[in-house]
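Rotation project, supervised by the postdoc (A.L.). Task for the rotation student: set up a whole-complex structure prediction and record inputs and outputs verbatim in this book. Inputs entered:
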Amino acid sequence: MSFLRFAARRLAEMAATLLGASFVIFGALYLAPGNPASFLLGGRSASPEALQAINEHYHLDDPFAERYLHWLGQVVQGDFGRSITYRTDVSRLLADRLPNTLMLISMALVLVLVFGLILGWTGAVRGGSTDSAILVTTTFAIGTPSFVAAVLLQGLFAVRLHWFPTGGTGDGFGQMLWHLTLPAVALALYLIGMLARVTRAAMLDVLGQEHVTVARSRGVRDSLVIRRHVFRNALGTVLTTGGLIVSTLLVCTVLVESAFSVGGIGQLLELSTTTKDFPTVQAISLIMVALFMTVNLVVDLLHPLVDPRVSLDPSKKAA
Amino acid sequence: MSASVSASDPSPAGPPAARRRSARGRYALPVAALAALSLVTACSGPPKAGGGTTSDAGFKLSAGTPAAAGELDSFTWALYAEPPTLDYISAFDYPQNTILSNVCESLMRWTPQLTMAPGLAEKASNPTPLTWVYDLRAGVRFHDGGTMTPEDVVYSLGRQMDPANGAAWNSNFSNVESVTKTGPLQVTVSLKQPDSQFPQYMATAAGVVASEAGVEKAGEDYGTAGSLDCTGPFSLGSWNKGQSIELKRFDGYWGPKAKSAKAVFTFLTDPSARTNAMLSGEADGGYLIPTESYSRLSNSGTGKLYFGEGLSTVNVNVTSMKGALGDVRVRRALSLALDRRGFVKAGLGGAGTVTTSLTTKAAWAEAPEDVRKAAFDGLPSPEQNIEAAKRMIEEAGATGKTVTIATSSIGQDVSLLATAVQDAGTKIGLKVVLKTIAPNAFTSLFTDPAAREGLDMFPETYYDSITDPMDLLSNFQTGAYQNYAGYSDEAYDALNDKARAEYDPAKRFATAAEMQKKAADQVLWIPVAEWPTAVFLNKRITGAPTTISYLYHPWAADVGAAAK
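Outputs recorded:
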């Protein structure tokens, strides 16, 4: 199977999954109790005319299938509708907040890749007490959920030491970097631990294999062996973990954004869910699913490039 | 503690901390008043003596904060959530009103002492029971340059009344027949029937006057982008979505100029993040302090935590009389067995006053002494009496019966109150079941009958939007929105109609006192405590009111430098 056909096939699968997800997302909200109209009215009693006017305006009384198709038609054209609570276009709400979330996730991802790989590599190669120290540190990191890390980091570095702000994003790139450092660390901590463990295990696995022993016995320089043979072989495992890392970042950003008052889409999702702001929740959920799937697609496409042994044909297992 | 709140709900839906206030917010509206900042001698404070309230010495109420000594370039204020919109017709909750009160003004105005004063109307008169005439202040400028006219008033109130707008204040206009211009600076409101509540609501966001041209120009975006084009001491500056809203001093303001050139509101949804921002100086102050942060803030040395008398009461709302609670003796017994003191200490951080009155003392500030006494006299003691309560349950034959109460990790006031009720019930022979509601769904209890299914009661903090006990007591008339238990009593409804139609405060409050008696006798909700307003100010700033007036009073204009 050619690479292009493989990619096209994966894209088609992704589109189908997105369609299914859109139906689930659209339908799920209607099963939960509560009505957006009552939130709009602030829980006050309203005249039947006022309620009807709201229901008509937001098509809340239309049959389910009609509303789903109407919504889907708009979404395909890039129109996510109007937010019920914020009374503004959802696309505008997202445009205001998506950059904050993407920046936060990117910063966390850089931290995870740099520190996760370095710690994992060092542990596997050095061994001994260095390895033990790294094991202890990563165990601690894995055991600390991001919202707990958020509270600890805030208390120490923002309130006590005043090194970083307690929250927000600030104006301009430099300010943003400074404001998002603590949230990014809180978000990354657990994943650094996880990636370090995975990298270490994968490298140790390869280190014990025959071809490494052979290469070493032939007198190839140790650093070269580790780079060429060990790390490259371990990279496939690391890459698979990468997909998992990005999706975890997407999920955890909801908690961290709230803790640090970062006005991103995670925080927006949380607020919109509470007020049953259907259009906003639907748009964010769909975008999250799309991002998640894109990451998996990229990982799948990169895999054969990193590791030539991986077959493009799904019917054959990797060699 | 926020960490524990988050920890209980690690789902992608996120930590519920922010929800906490909106859940209670819409109902809880404190008022607070208090006589006496020596500068303001005219104010009449709420009564101190009498009835079923016992003061705990754990906290001190302040009439206000010291007046500002000088001007400021800017101050930063912590809010627990971002307002979805600043359109005044949707402004029913804390975040919106805390900001909006400084930008948009109403026909009447709430004072820091929680009395009503003239606002954009210089005078409100009532020539016949069915008409309210508002004589407007001359030369009032809108932020975008126009001058306020009667047409703007007719237009602004008309937006509240138009059913298509779904205004949060719509029901307050249910008795309004028409709003018309009756002079170059005069507007007349005609009523279908006399309504004593309507003129009082003209001091809330229901009475806001915005520029017709400004609202029309903004169209669908009004309240979410651009200018609000109102008349207040501040105009809306930049709105950094998801982060902050900046207000700028309005130089064309008709009244005393604001003491700060800028006021910046930052949205800090997590309670511990909010406290941390105040401790680190990133926020200079804030209202609605998380109870669990009271001691951290007062002991921090970075500023001062003040309490003001409030119009908020913490209650247990009876939502169903189909089960064991259908017998009034069971409701009375539960109320008698409740450890109110223990709850105030743990749930409200010690800053609260135990009570068996549904309404706050402050809500009766305008009532004559004897009426006030009548309203509170004869209410049961707030002290716990397990033995007596046990006997009542036995008499009612309710021993072993089950009562279900909602609980939630939304805030310790909710979860600890539910636990206190369970404790009381268990001690007197009832089986009290706690039903845990996800924090994000707690708000649904107020709005959705399906969410209340299987529940007999839930903890609720209620606030009055006006200084009048009718605001709460009218909840027990037949078919009222919050009359979840379906209480219906012809005599009560008659009293309610009579009080609503009565403009004379003395007579109205006398009728309200009868209603209070009935509601208390029937234990329609179980009152637990009065909850004061809390405000934190760091050492840099001063001047903010301590009372709930910040919802409808341009309070930020009074905030200035603590020292010259």
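Student's summary: Residues 222-259 of chain A form the longest helix (38 residues).
Supervisor addendum: Chain A touches chain B through 66 residues (CB under 8 Å).
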